Amino acid sequence: MIQFIFLVFLGMTSNSLLAKNVFKTNELMVIDGIASEKIWYQLEWNPINQPIIGPLPDAKDFSGRYKLTWDQNFIYILVEIVDDKLFDGHPIPTDFYWDDDCLEIFIDEDASGGNHQFNFNAFAYHLGLDNQVVDIGEKDRFGNVQFLVLNDHAINRWRRSRTEPSKILWEVALAVYDDQFQSPASGKTNQPVQLKSGKELGLMIAYCDNDGSSTRESFIGSIDIQAVNGDKNRGYIDADVFGQIKLVE
Q: Which domains does the chain have, with CATH numbers?
């Protein structure tokens, strides 16, 4: 079965005027946690090193970096994570998934910014260690928050390094959906957008790190978010804090 690699983008500060160029690949990208494609050797790493919740961990506890490419169907993200303790304490994918170790990918299809907490103006995907993909959906008619498993949005796989057990490579092929997306419960068939050169998107990458506590100890991202009343954890609410990328040939 052919799988596709998902790359992660570093992003820029939220007030950046210029989008970061992301170059197209012509290779067949295989999601296997190995990253053997030639494109990965041609791209530079970008750090995931901005504390959002808690302090920035010691490098032996956590460090992260990523690369990014694309074709007409997917944005590909390659993420390298060093994490001395992988923790997955919630077997139900929609149950407190943010308090387990997980990779987060925030994406805004048209880089329009704005609120997306209970709508699909943008997405905040949480990729669990079990490769389940979850985001917050709309509230139901009773006001209850709906949590959605969206595994068809991001094909992903991670693999431990054979020589450095604390290091993993996480590969993802991310399909991009616009703000016309509707919850699967609506019965609508949603189609991802076709990507092309010149398109700009909002993007941020982050990682939840938990070493066995009841909640995550640290939440680290690729963007230096400006705090609102002391709170930097704005990505799941406000797409204005994302960086911007531009797809180029």
A: 20-248 (2.60.40.1190)
Report pTM.
0.92
CB atoms within 10 A of CB 203: 31
Question: Residue 117 is encoded by which pair of tokens?
Answer: 């907490």
Give just the sign of the alpha carbon dihedral 89, 91, 92, 97. Answer: positive
CA distance 79 to 153: 17
142-200: per-residue pLDDT in tens? 999 999 999 999 999 999 999 999 999 999 999 999 999 999 989 999 999 999 999 99
Partnered with residue 143 across adjacent β-strands are none
Phi-psi region of 111 (alpha: psi -120 to 50; beta: other; left: phi over 0): left
DSSP string covering 36-81, please? -SHHHHHS--EEE-EEEESPPPPTTTEEEEEEEEE-SS-EEEEEEE
